[in-house]
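[User] I wish I could look at a protein chain and see how it folds. I have put the entry right below:
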Amino acid sequence: MTSRYVINASVTPKGSLETLSQREVQQLSKAGCGSTYTLFRQCALAILNTGARIDNAKTILEAYDDFEVRIHQQDRGVRLELLNAPADAFVDGEMIASTREMLFSALRDIVYTESELGSPRIDLGSSQGITDYVFHLLRNARTLRPGVEPNMVVCWGGHSISTEEYKYSKRVGHELGLRNLNICTGCGPGVMKGPMKGATIAHAKQRIVGGRYLGLTEPGIIAAEAPNPIVNELVIMPDIEKRLEAFVRVGHGIIIFPGGVGTAEEFLYLLGILLHPDNRDVPFPVILTGPVDAAPYLEQIREFVGATLGEKAQGLYQIIIDNPTEVARQMSEGLKAVKQFRRERNDAFHFNWLLKIEDGFQHPFDPTHENMASLQLTRDVPPHQLAANLRRAFSGIVAGNVKDKGIRRIEKFGRYEIHGDPGIMKPLDELLQAFVLQHRMKLPGGRPYEPCYRVVT
């Protein structure tokens, strides 16, 4: 980013936003406690950079190191004063509507998260308490729609994908939209945008008003995966673990497209939950899909799951190659089973309360060099716990690749070391090498990928 164009502007929310208390304004101001302001500034800058082809949080933060956002409380609500903001977020001096919506969504989520942490009703020390916290965050964001039959399909996949893979994800999204299904993704570019784009066209064809394009993100990764402009519901969860839980609690089925370590992290998280004995009978349709060119990638994933977690894990999903119509049909059939199951057990359609998620999947993993080196990647642990530990390994690699804090740790202490049984380390190393060769670690055209890890057998 050798050149940049900036603008100073003042923006107010379109519609309404709950007014802030003096304490909340102070927390969010530069003169306040500091950490909350820093968090909101980072999220705001990422949103204003929507569309930028940069997947490195550190680069974006450094390029706009003089960017400031000031919060003013008014009788009519809140006003944001932006200094040295990216000019691409504006047209003729007016902020693009979708950008403005997402900017105030970020303000809403960060204020609520900070205020709730001090509440006596929040119990982050228990598994049920964390699930309740995720529920409250989603309810505050008006994401939960009681009484609506299961129709939210989560789409996971990479932001660094080929043109063919992106076009394919749009075709799948189109088929889902034709069947009146809504889309939830990680809200960024690539596969996180493609299904939404396809669904918008299909919803227009079917004259569906109010189609939902839900984006779930978290502060540590939002700069690397800035929200795409199709997102009409943005929710910023406090950390990656609560973001992942939100996906499986809100989503009724999941489609996984080709991706890199971030997608592998999400997939392993999901497999770890579905492998838990308490979830044996819970219907949750999962489909891995991609165009013909992605068949080798999908086969690599299948072999990796078989080599590390076994055949039982392979039976938890189906693979469909180059057939968007069949993907949508199979997902629609799977959602019928979800609907029937929840009706029989009087479980909510809008939040999957019955899904068992152990606290090992819920507590934030801090990818320090010590924590990465001490991950228990052995055959001695049950498959669902091994999946959780493998998920943490991939989470650490994501941090070292694109998150500001992780990048700085690698610069200071060198590569992460990942230890484990040879029978697990070998397929792990082979999968990671394949990601590098297929340019799934970084955006094509950038600098050659430099691994932030070393696999040790």
